[in-house]
Specification:
By secondary structure, the protein is an alpha/beta fold. The strands form 4 sheets. It has a 6-stranded parallel sheet with strand order 3-2-4-5-7-6, with helices on both faces. Helix 14 links the parallel strand 15 and strand 16. It is globular, with a radius of gyration of 24 Å. Bound molecules: thiamine diphosphate and magnesium ion. The site of magnesium ion has 7 residues, from helix 16.
């Protein structure tokens, strides 16, 4: 509260800046290092979600940043809190997500003594963030928090860490609020657009790859219209399936782990590859084998909002420094000297053949059939959240994303993301259905946030593909060291009982045919729910079994 002398505590100034910049949600684990900030939140209209582990809190904030394009915000305490939260910071970095994390710091007069839980945040987070700072002077809070939001959200978005010493937060100061930050759009210039149109006009086998952040539903729609107008094949890169309507007649499929070999061939033999928004990192580039480095073998156009990404790995024939939102808007008015040859339908036929029907699988539950049931029965406003593991291969192959930000999952391949993301989505959009799809390993990495879901009465369904394995790693292990199993088997808890112990709903499914009823019961419970699927460990990918991988590896190794 402002005093008669027009002063506020630094903590109040800080929380007022969050409001100015449009923050609606804060995720936290409390600490004595930032009690004053918590107290300032007490009287604000910002919704606070108290979590069970800072990794969960940071991932929730990251998920908010991912779907809104505005910085997600979390608060954590010093040393152990901040290092727990590093998991979410790394995801924001790799996924280009705007995130601002505030860390309580020891009092200013104790610094440099290695006081209780003291860390040098600039040193610890320097390599992981776009910017890390510590605010000593409460009068500079409006300036520096404004800078944090601008840096996190603009160019290639990413994480910012702001340390706030405990004693600084309680100082009183008379200072004016900053104006709200606004996203800065970088638009393509006329010369670049002309060159782009000329390259596309003469291309015989062009393909458009979508990725990265700084998208919106409008931008996705504009790209969709453009692609259809010219029957241009469009693929989405790893974990960015939501950037293109999978029912579009131009959709060429998901370019991530285990993609359709025909899609890989189509890209390799394309005479023009247009990469809009993404970086084409290790996973979508198939371990950097798709495009030659530094000069791709085909004509290559790279459009990215971060100037530092253009020419970083690939030296493009045409580099355009623009946000996907601004570039998509420019596409609406783009005129071609002649329409390019359209192969959208052929690419889409390949995609449909790859994904229409689930593959055969060993065991009672066919996870592909479950995914096909979910895609056919969930309304398009459903948000799908997941972390990492082989189970996600079935999502990428069989689910069909229809809307922007419908898929909330880490391109960084980080386990443990699905449950926190689902909590965050349900806090943000209480009226939208949310489904978390998890592996048994993946789920327990942040399964404690199931308690947060129960605490806030945020019902969503977690579908756990329980194969009793860190399956991804077992798969690699069998390939590299066939038969020499170590550290990849899991003895799991009774997942439905776990759900019930937390105050949720739980059910186990042993046969594919029982899934629809179990899922319906989970939804109808009105509680956070777990549907545990008994997955045969042999069903390691949609196309191969563990035994086949082992046999192939043994055959290849020789005596
Ligand atoms: C935080 C984190 N730790 C470790 C890994 C390495 N890793 C990738 S997948 C995986 C196993 C996933 O197991 P599970 O969730 O059960 O899925 P499955 O592969 O069995 O389907 C591991 C350990 C990772 N990606 N992220
Ligand atoms: Mg598993």
């Amino acid at each position: 509260m402002r005093g008669k002398d027009n002063t506020r505590t630094a903590a109040e100034v800080l929380v007022d800046q969050l409001r100015v910049h449009g923050t609606r949600h804060v995720f936290c684990v409390p600490g004595e290092s930032y009690l004053a900030a918590l107290d300032a939140l007490h009287d604000s209209d910002i919704a606070v979600t108290v979590c069970r582990q800072e990794g969960g809190a940071a991932m929730m904030a990251e998920a908010v940043g991912k779907v809104t394009g505005r910085p997600g915000v979390c608060f954590v305490t010093r040393g152990p809190g901040a290092t727990n939260a590093a998991h979410g910071i790394h995801i924001a970095r790799q996924d280009s997500t705007p995130l601002v994390m505030f860390v309580g710091q020891v009092a200013r007069d104790m610094r440099e003594r290695e006081a209780f839980q003291e860390l040098d945040y600039r040193a610890v987070f320097g390599a992981m963030t776009k910017w890390t700072t510590e605010i000593d002077d409460p009068a500079r809070l409006p300036e520096l928090v404004s800078r944090a939001f601008h840096i996190a959200a603009n160019g290639r978005p990413g994480p910012v860490v702001v340390a706030v010493p405990e004693d600084m937060l309680t100082e009183r100061v008379a200072v004016a609020d900053a104006p709200p930050y606004a996203p800065i759009e970088t638009a393509p210039g006329p010369a670049a657009l002309e060159k782009f149109a000329a390259m596309l006009a003469v291309a015989l086998t062009p393909i458009l790859l979508l990725g990265g952040s700084r998208w919106s539903q409008d931008a996705c729609d504009a790209v969709g219209r453009f692609a259809q107008r010219y029957s241009l094949p469009v693929a989405t890169t790893f974990r960015r399936g939501h950037l293109f309507d999978a029912l579009s007649p131009c959709y060429a499929g998901d370019l991530g782990i285990g993609p359709n070999p025909k899609l890989v061939e189509r890209i390799k033999s394309a005479d023009l590859v247009i990469l809009l928004g993404g970086r084409l990192g290790e996973l979508p580039s198939q371990s950097y084998t798709l495009l030659d480095i530094p000069r791709p073998q085909m004509n290559f156009v790279h459009i990215h909002p971060g100037i530092e990404e253009l020419g970083r790995v690939y030296s493009p024939h045409l580099a355009i420094h623009a946000t996907p939102t601004a570039f998509a808007a420019a596409l609406e008015n783009l005129k071609f000297p002649q329409p390019p040859a359209g192969q959208g339908a052929a690419a889409n036929a390949d995609y449909r053949q790859w994904t229409d029907r689930p593959t055969d699988q060993p065991g009672g539950v066919n996870f592909g059939a479950v995914m096909v049931w979910l895609r056919d029965n969930l309304p398009p406003e459903t948000l799908i959240c997941n972390g990492a593991g082989n189970f996600a291969a079935w999502i990428h192959r069989f689910f069909r994303f229809r809307r922007f930000a419908q898929h909330v999952a880490p391109a960084s391949g980080s386990m443990g993301y699905g449950v926190p993301a689902a909590v965050a989505m349900k806090r943000l959009y209480p009226d939208r259905p949310v489904v978390c799809i998890a592996g048994d390993g993946d789920f327990l990495m942040n399964g404690q946030e199931f308690a947060t879901a129960v605490q806030y009465g945020t019902p969503f369904v977690v579908v756990i593909a329980d194969n009793g394995l860190y399956g991804t790693i077992r798969m690699h292990q069998e390939r590299e060291y066939p038969g020499r199993v170590i550290a990849t088997a899991l003895r799991n808890p009774d997942f439905p009982a776990y759900a019930r112990a937390f105050g949720g709903f739980g059910v186990s499914v042993e046969r594919t045919a029982d899934f629809p009823a179990a899922f319906a019961a989970a939804q109808q419970s009105g509680k956070p729910a777990i549907v545990r699927l008994a997955i045969d460990p042999e069903a390691i990918t949609p196309v191969t079994t563990l035994s086949q991988i082992r046999a192939q590896a043994l055959a290849g190794k020789g005596p």
